[in-house]
Amino acid sequence: MNHPIVDIGVNLMHRSFHEDREQVVQRAAESQVSPLIITGTSLRSSGEAARYAARYPGKLYATAGVHPHDAKSCNEETIAKLRELAALPQVAAIGECGLDYNRDFSPRDVQRHWFAEQIRLALELDMPLFLHEREASADFIALLKEHAVSKAVVHCFTGTRSELKAYLDMGLYIGITGWICDERRGRHLQELVRMIPLNRLMLETDAPFLTPRDLKEKPANGRNEPAFLPHILQTVARCIGKPAEEVAKAATETTAEFFGID
Questions:
Q1: Per-residue confidence at 95, pLDDT binned at 50, 70, 90?
Q2: Is beta strand 5-10 parallel, antiparallel or unpaired with respect to 60-64?
């Protein structure tokens, strides 16, 4: 593959990368996966992501946000601290934020409150949102509509046809992971991905999670990494019946414009 692709969702500060983080970034670049956007999921991880991304200008970016799992740890200082992080040139979006009614690690009313606060912050700063939704689509859609959000990407989309249609009708962007490579639970996604216009599609690994199940050479440690993104691209391209180069070019252009990165 000749066209570089952006991995919009890498949990690069995860402990599984502590030993070889720099080599992971290097392997990604050698696989034409660059830049990488490091996902922030709490104030602490968002700060770590921003600091690490600063070491690789133009090659690494970060998001700053609080995942619904961590919403219970938010307080009156949270948004001010996110605002400070968002001012850094390497921070490209607010998030990962949203709602997760599958695990309910934070009470649902607390999740909704801090999701709305982060939406307001993104709108105030005119920054895109990096979103998480699991088994909470009705409340998720209602909050996004209430605030008239359109510049947002639904990260790691695995939902239903009607959810996808609702997101696309609202002007949202869709992030597709290696979930699509899973012959057991990804089959519906292989069909739904055809509904996503090329100018709304983004690609991501969500590394170290969601290692593509159909990789020919499985990593010994089972860990996903950005270098596997071309494999996900090939699957997406096959599902939508377009050449991988065309999909890579479109996804990269869409991603660069959305996040405001080179």
A1: very high
A2: unpaired
Position 24 confidence tier, pLDDT thresholds 50, 70, 90: very high
Lookup: tokens for 15? 């402990």
pTM for the complete prediction?
A: 0.97
Give CA–CA dist 105/108, Å, rounded: 9
Q: Which value, in Å, is the radius of gyration of the alpha carbons in the chain? A: 17
In this predicted structure, the answer to whether residue 218 has a pLDDT above a threshold of 90 is no
Report whether 212 contacts 231 (CB < 8 A): yes
Three-class SS of the chain? CCCCEEEEEECCCCHHHCCCHHHHHHHHHHCCEEEEEECCCCHHHHHHHHHHHCCCCCCEEEEECCCHHHHHHCCCCHHHHHHHHHCCCCEEEEEEEEEECCCCCCCHHHHHHHHHHHHHHHHHHCCCEEEEEECCHHHHHHHHHHCCCCCEEECCCCCCHHHHHHHHHCCCEEEECHHHHCCCCCHHHHHHHHHCCHHHEEECCCECCCCCCCCCCCCCCCCCCHHHHHHHHHHHHHHHCCCHHHHHHHHHHHHHHHHCCC
Q: Report the pLDDT value the prediction gives residue 1, as an integer from 0 to 100.
A: 61
Instruction: Collect all residues with Cβ–Cβ distance below 8 Å to 5 and sequence separation of at least 6.
Output: 32, 33, 203, 229, 230, 233, 248, 251, 252
Q: What is d(CA 156, CA 132) in angstroms, rounded to the nearest whole number?
A: 8
Residue 99 backbone dihedrals phi, psi, to 5 degrees? -135, 140
- Percentage of the chain modeled with pLDDT above 90: 94
Rounded to 5 degrees, φ, ψ at 243 are: -65, 140
